[in-house]
Amino acid sequence: MLFKNAFYYFKGPSQRDMFIANPSRFILNVTLPKNGDLPLRVYHHKAAEILVHEKSLSGHCPITLMDEERVKKGDPLLLILFRDNKYVFDSEYKL
Q1: Residues 74, 59 contacting (CB under 8 angstroms)
Q2: What radius of gyration do the chain's Cα atoms show?
Q3: 87 vs 53, 65, 70, CA distance in Å?
């Protein structure tokens, strides 16, 4: 549902009805992230274009490092931009 220029999604009708009954209970003192604070996925065609211009992008998958405690080269076509940094991931699942 759209409420005050933001979309809200609910698990089911009962949760939606609870929100409709008292929306301020759920949105008061809630700060939503700005566009710069959200990761941006770079799709294959654009990632390939970035790779052509940026030869230094040879990163490792941060998820593999944290979850499996090992270093594994990321796929350069699975690219995320976040706060002026570029991150590559080992698989679509980890992305």
Answers
A1: yes
A2: 19
A3: 16, 13, 16
Average pLDDT, the chain: 85
Give strand ranges (E) for 1-95: 2-3, 6-7, 40-42, 75-82, 85-89
Q: Coil, helix or strand for 12?
A: coil
pTM over 0.90: no
Please give the helix or strand (H or E) that residue 64 lies within, else none: helix 62-68
- What sign results for the dihedral spanned by CA atoms 50, 46, 77, 81? positive
Domain-wise residue ranges, the chain:
1-32, 36-95
Question: Can you tell me the distance from the alpha carbon of 44 to that of 78, in angstroms, rounded to the nearest whole number?
Answer: 7
The 10s digit of each residue's pLDDT in 15-44 is 999 999 999 888 888 777 777 788 888 888
Determine the straight-line distance between the first and last CA of the chain, rounded to whole angstroms: 28
